[in-house]
Amino acid sequence: MKKLFVTMCALLAVGFASAQSEIIAKFNEGAKAVQSKNYASAITLFETVIDKGMDSEDNTVLNCVATAKKYLPVCYQGVGLSAASQKNYTKAIEYLTKAADTAELYGNTSAKQKAMMIIAKVYQVQGGEAFNTKDYATAASVFEKGYAANPRNAEMALNLATSYCELGKYDEGMAIYDKICKMPADKYADAIAKAEANKTLYTNNKVASMQQAGDFDGVIAMADKLVASNPALAEKIRIEAYNGKKDYAKVIALGDAAAAAQNDEEAKSAIYFLVGAAHNAKYNESGNKDVASRDKAIAALKKVTAGASVDAAKAALTELTK
After folding, report:
1. Helix, strand, coil % (nearest 5) of the chain?
2. Sign of CA pseudo-dihedral 252, 258, 259, 265
3. Does residue 18 sit within a domain?
4. 79 is a domain residue
5. How do residues 204-217 score in pLDDT, each as one tens digit?
6. What contacts 37, CB < 8 A, 6 or more positions away?
7. How far apart are CA 219 and CA 303, in angstroms?
């Protein structure tokens, strides 16, 4: 009986050694597959190594398992990139997501971050196809996923914000632009400049449509929201709205602060023209008897030195100084 027990132990030892050899052999096959960029085969082999070797007490096997865990996300990533190059975006996202999930499962933070960045890039390319044909609804739905994967992809964030604005989703677009503007200026200077320019463009477009509809109170409410992030633009559209309402007293009251908030002479001149016109309106309403309003109109109009209002200001000055 004792002899049988010894024989059985020997058989178990042989079986155990055979299992170890099989795991090591699978790992070596997987390593060769990675070297030849046969990532699909490497995935199957490394998953087998992890599954069968994770409970081993053999150091060589455990080292194989640890290395397989390290390279498994790379293999998923490789399959995903290959699919993306063939414009098979569904498969690309599937495998890249597996790369991120596997990296997180095995505590590989850097691999997860890289996978998420690539996922965002794939969505950027996919959404870009729709964006370039002005299919902004499709583009936005794709860019949203990419932005969630990597909010630091500034180019895609710009395209997402633009898609929102083109769809009439002004608030959503401004929210993304604002986030871009808060990114580190040393690294994202170009993106920030584009975001600021687009904020101004789409705000002016929105204001123009509201002014055309006579919704001056809506413009004023918009200015109230903008004042913290863009005081120059906020003060400009606010004073234009009060001018549209023909509330000349308010235009005059806001004039100096609005002009001071502007960053260039053309914008300041536009404000001073409105202030001069407001004083001139009061002068006309008085039957040309309110000399103080006339003098204030002249003073404001003389500050119009740049931009589209220069000729109109000169014409008004000629009338006022006859």
Report:
1. 85, 0, 15
2. negative
3. yes
4. yes
5. 999 999 999 999 99
6. 78
7. 26
